[in-house]
Amino acid sequence: MVEFKNVSKTFADTGEVVFRDLSFQVKDGEFVLLTGESGVGKTTVLRLLLKELEPDSGRIWVAERDISGIPYAEVPYYRRNFGVMFQDHRLLPNENCYQNIELARIVTGGKTKDSPRKIGSLMKLLGIENYYKRLPNELSGGEQAKVCLARALVNNPQVLIADEPTANLDPRSSEEFLKLLLLIHSGVHIKTTIIVATHDAILKGCDQAREIPLEH
Ligand SMILES: Nc1ncnc2c1ncn2[C@@H]1O[C@H](COP(=O)(O)OP(=O)(O)O)[C@@H](O)[C@H]1O
Ligand SMILES: [Mg+2]
After folding, report:
1. Does the predicted TM-score (pTM) go above 0.85?
2. What CATH architecture is 2-213?
3. I want to staple 173 with a disulfide (CB 3.0 to 4.6 A). Which of 123, 142, 147, 168 is the partner?
4. Residue of the CA atom closest to atom 18 of ligand 1
5. Which residues are close to ligand 2, an ion, with C-beta < 5 A?
6. Residue 12: is its pLDDT beyond 90?
7. What residue owns the CA closest to ligand 1's atom 8?
8. How far is the CA of 49 from the centre of ligand 2 (A)?
9. pLDDT attached to residue 204
10. Would you kindly state where each structural domain of the chain is located, as residue ranges?
């Protein structure tokens, strides 16, 4: 599903080498954790995958396609392969939970006609069906993470990407969130490949996830 081959990335402005010759593969339907201490390049890997950044050298394939060849105008469509959970949540503060999820559905080209049914069943699956009308700041961190997960999944992406999704959660909420990732991975929603950047011991303790450690 995803392959990095000898990928190197240096930030031109700072001259900082993030990694050199990074290679790894993620198979279709796999659940992997990109791990390593802060600053090791986890977020950079995710940004390269989303084509928010370009590598200095090396190749990245997604669904058998070398993504360096994707023209600029096609990048927004390319990104529809992914459902993304950002580290800073980015929920719209003045829109309720349902609207936050619905907006993501519209922006990423989902059909609006069957949105209520689709969003309703996804919220139920993730146990947030009682929060339709609540604003993000009326939810706990763990509940917000679930809304972000629903938002990332709303258009059935092939790959779910999450950047430190449990960074601000207490251990119990992290456990609960991991259970939801496993539920999604089991294919109850749709078959989804999952890539999570994390240094959370709770996620790292999960037997079903394969760790891809990044090193300086
Ligand atoms: N846009 C940027 N410009 C310059 N340096 C950056 C930029 N983004 C990240 N870095 C640097 O690259 C390294 C890896 O960052 P990052 O991928 O965010 O690590 P992680 O997510 O593992 O904490 C860090 O040293 C960081 O300071
Ligand atoms: Mg990071």
Report:
1. yes
2. 3-Layer(aba) Sandwich (3.40)
3. 142
4. 43
5. 42-43
6. no
7. 44
8. 14
9. 95
10. 2-213
User: Measuring CA to CA, which residue among 33, 34, 32, 27 is closest to residue 3?
Assistant: 27
C-alpha of residue 112 to centroid of ligand 2, in Å: 33
**Residue 140 to residue 152: CA distance in whole angstroms:** 18
pLDDT band at residue 215, thresholds of 50, 70 and 90?
A: confident
Alpha helices in the chain (DSSP H): 42-49, 75-78, 97-107, 115-125, 141-153, 171-185, 201-204
Q: What whole-number distance in Å separates Cα of residue 21 and Cα of residue 186? A: 32
Residues 55-97 have pLDDT tens digits of 999 999 999 999 999 999 999 999 999 999 998 888 999 999 9
Q: Look at residue 66 in the predicted model and tell me its pLDDT.
A: 96
Distance CA 209, CA 204 (A): 8
Amino acid in position 212: I
Identify the CA nearest to 89 among candidates 158, 35, 137.
137
Q: Which of 18, 47, 86 to mutate to test the pocket of ligand 1 (most atoms within 8 A of CB)?
A: 18
pLDDT digits (tens, 9 = 90+) for 30-66: 999 999 999 999 999 999 999 999 999 999 999 999 9
Q: Which ligand is nearest to the CA of 163?
A: 2
- Residues whose beta carbon lies within 6 Å of some atom of ligand 1: 11, 13-14, 16, 18, 36, 38-44
**Strands of the 65-66 sheet, one edge to the other:** 16-26, 2-11, 57-62, 65-66
